[in-house]
Amino acid sequence: MQKKIEKIKELAGPWMESIFYSQVSDQQIKDFEMKKNIEIPKSYKEFLNNTNGAKIFGGDAFFYGIGDSIDFEVNYDFSEGKVPKQLLIVGFYRSRHVCYDYRYKSFIFYEYEEYDEIEEECMSFSTFDEVLDYIIDIAIS
Length: 141
Fold this sequence. Notes:
This protein is α+β, with helices and mostly antiparallel strands. The chain has helices spanning 2-11, 26-36, 42-50, 118-121, 128-140; strands at 19-20, 54-56, 61-63, 87-93, 96-101, 106-110, 124-125. Strands 1-2-3-4-5-6-7 form a seven-stranded antiparallel β-sheet.
């Protein structure tokens, strides 16, 4: 995970500024999960252990953290309830929510598709690392 974060920092330029927040501990994540009654997937926990959220590539992507010292917490829904409750929101990328779908154990870019059709309609990634790889690839192409 740290290598991906370093790669993003390397790519940052005047229009692609990236900001990373202070990391959080496993105990802080557990406390947040208990407080919010959610389960954060392992690969996103690893991200939080390295940075408690991030705004990358000039705001193309924003990944949520936990606690009061960040702009948006995990599961923040800027669409005012349009995201199905069965999805865990971890950020946004180019106006689409980045969510974890517990049914398929995958991350998706969600843009208000019907919940029963998500698997066919949304881009899907097995881990959060793959989400970052995809966003890095787009940024350098």
